[in-house]
Design brief:
The chain is an alpha+beta fold. 50% of the residues lie in helices and 14% in strands. It has a single domain (10-57, 87-181, 197-246), classed as Rhomboid-like fold, CATH 1.20.1540. It has ten helices and five strands. The strands form two sheets. It has a three-stranded antiparallel β-sheet with strand order 1-4-5. A two-stranded antiparallel ribbon has the order 2-3. Helix 7 packs across helix 8 and helix 8 (198-214) crosses helix 9. The longest helix has 22 residues, at 103-124.
Length: 273
Amino acid sequence: MIPLRDNIPSRSTPFVNYFVIVTCTLVFLAQLGESRGQGSLIERYGMIPVRVIHPNRPVEMADYELVRTPFDIRYHEVTRQAAESAVAPWLTVLTCIFLHGGWMHFLGNMWFLYIFGDNVEDRFGHFGYLMFYLGCGIAASLTHLLTNLGGPSVSVPTIGASGAIAGVMGAYFLLYPRAKVVTIVPILFFIQIIVLPASIFLGIWFAIQIFQGTSMQSTGVAWWAHIGGFLVGMLLAWQLKQHHKLRPPVERVLPHTDHVTAYRFRRQDNPWH
């Protein structure tokens, strides 16, 4: 499911949310511009679990080298030593959340952050949102670290803002459960645009993370980082809400209609209220 927009306005410009998006964009452009191979930003700033646990031990990681034969070209798996961390290994639990593994990884993360982050920043305030975002990112990294001790990914660099953004989504789930999200849902060969309550959209997203995280499938995705970030974000939002540390919510408004939403209004009662 791909969110297009929600119906919750923001009282102020989400400067911190924009700052995070711009920072991740600049880092990703730096990744695209670097030469491939040993010493990449991913190895120097990504979180490698075994390096965090044993900071003084060299990290051995799998790599591939090109082998030419008279008949074809093949990739042969080899083992090499990872580049040294550019920061203290424990600090990579934070630096890794600004790196991404490709265009889809980057664009997907930034779009979800753009859709849900402004409203969470509106409730937390600018500085509070910055601390919240970074804290959720660290919590997500630690969750992945603890759930991969001794596993096959212990020497694989972990990168991505997904865990921190999952924390933002967890806070949104708690603070705006009745908000409406215009969503693209691919069904077989057809694309459907539907309006879902935020609690349903985010609940389905979280259920997918649970299913993937517990299915023991090694897909290269840090599912437990998503789960940990989401739960920590929801818990922090609940605690702050209980102690009246958040700004009050704003009223939901009906966004400008277009041919898609107008069509839906003719087919059913107004889905935004």
